[in-house]
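Q: How would the structure tokens look for this protein?
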Amino acid sequence: MSKKEYNFINITYKEYGNDIDKLCKKILDSKFEVDFIYGFPRGGLPIAVHLSHFFNCKILYSLQECYQQTINNKKNILFVDDIIDTGETYINVMPYLLYSTYTKTSTLYFKPRASFRPNIFIRDFNNDDWIVMPWEKENETPNRKI
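A: Here is the predicted structure in token form.
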């Protein structure tokens, strides 16, 4: 696929920060009481750090910790990622975690073709958009087909 076939969308640091702030507000508005946050590596980690400061809660670093906190301890966990493009990251998480009454899912950016729809997202894009995060090279060739 040639570069011309992609619709590159460059996200600036300012937009990224504003979108994280909007995510915080949407989570507050949802009335979900966040006990813990799990950020999917790599894209979800910086967002998880921001949210953990905002909600004054701990970040969990493994899915086993998530399981223990939700199933055993009945604690609320917010899962977060930067973008849901295909939905595979969320689908690959153990379904009993994602569909627990003690979890919510969130992302900054979402594409409608994804096989998983989060509870909370900030912006949706077209399926043929290639989102370029502020730390990525502007002219970088996408690493997969869109």
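The chain has a mean pLDDT of 90.

The helical segments are 13-29, 44-55, 63-72, 88-91, 95-98.

Upvote if useful.
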